[in-house]
């Protein structure tokens, strides 16, 4: 995705010392190193399949400040400082306090104008230092406690707000305040309602299908294969997974199992339609993996399970299971 940065600012939330530093000046985006660094990191996480979609509540303080900034009533530094101070307050109230750096950017992601928020918890790292005393050079290893992520790493937490329709995408971040779990972004900073991400939703329906299959003494491998096949067939036309259709495809011969599956999904507040994104596509293309109680592991494409040409799983009369593999030309030792 093409990322165009208009503005960016860095705030340092030092909760260990109690002295946070809020920048009054923006980062210099004419410095190509800074510009490239931020664009690469935003691009890396803006399509994360684990991002939850959110909608601001009417009384959201963040939304109020964002609209003030968008209308020109306040400047970028003041708006970003409000967000950083609110984060500082929330993290300061938590049972596990971590200092962090927060970068807030005004940018265009593809064709969507928005605000990107990148949060990085401070972690120790090491570097070198050269000292020269009395004409003698000494190289030392020193400890740093505030290192930003490198090119191959990611920021710990991030969020994106579309400044046209005010929709939100954010990575869930649970913190504990007085023993109670709360979402740093949804409950704290943004004050928004949310749906589960496509990643969370797909994992949930897969888990529920497996559990119900076990309860009804069904075949878990058959369930995996049916889910994968349904998603593959559906993605070609609609690019959405309909939960009721998954239930129909998996529990074709058991209406009671089908109803229980749909009920569990509703109780968990999983969306009725789940978008097929990169995470889902990757998982449906993964091989089915099985392991026997004798320690043998077998991995095979889901479409092989019912083709009657490559692999056969046979339930024997004595209760044991036999697995037969056909049409093999070569065995490779890996």
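-> sequence recovered:
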């Amino acid at each position: 995705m093409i990322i165009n940065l208009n503005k960016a600012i860095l705030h340092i939330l030092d909760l260990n010392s109690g002295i946070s530093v809020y920048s009054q000046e923006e980062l210099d985006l004419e410095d190509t190193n800074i510009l490239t660094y931020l664009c690469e990191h935003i691009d890396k996480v803006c399509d994360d399949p684990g991002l939850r979609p959110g909608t601001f509540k009417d009384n959201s303080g963040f939304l109020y400040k964002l609209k003030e900034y968008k209308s020109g009533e306040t400047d970028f530094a003041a708006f970003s400082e409000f967000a950083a101070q609110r984060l500082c307050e929330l993290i300061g109230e938590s049972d596990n306090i971590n200092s962090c750096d927060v970068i807030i950017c005004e940018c265009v992601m593809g064709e969507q104008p928005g605000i990107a928020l990148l949060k990085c918890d401070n972690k120790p790292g090491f570097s070198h230092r050269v000292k020269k005393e009395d004409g003698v050079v000494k190289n030392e290893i020193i400890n740093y406690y505030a290192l930003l992520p490198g090119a191959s790493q990611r920021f710990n937490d991030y969020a994106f707000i579309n400044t046209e329709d005010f929709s939100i995408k954010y990575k869930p971040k649970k913190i504990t305040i007085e023993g109670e779990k709360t979402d740093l972004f949804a409950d704290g900073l943004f004050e928004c309602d949310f749906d589960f991400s496509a990643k969370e939703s797909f994992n949930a329906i897969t888990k529920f299908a497996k559990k119900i299959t076990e309860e009804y003494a069904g075949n878990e491998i058959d369930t995996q294969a049916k889910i994968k096949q349904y998603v593959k067939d559906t993605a070609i036309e609609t690019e959405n997974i309909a939960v009721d259709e998954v239930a129909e495809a998996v529990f074709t011969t058991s209406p009671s199992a089908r109803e229980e599956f749909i009920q569990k999904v509703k109780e968990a507040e999983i969306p009725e339609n789940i978008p097929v994104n990169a995470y889902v596509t990757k998982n449906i293309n993964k091989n089915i993996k099985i392991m026997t109680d004798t320690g043998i592991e077998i991995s095979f494409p889901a479409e092989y399970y019912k083709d009657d040409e490559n692999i056969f799983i046979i339930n024997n009369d004595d209760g044991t299971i036999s697995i037969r593999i056909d049409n093999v030309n070569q065995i490779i030792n890996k």
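The chain has nine helices and 18 strands.
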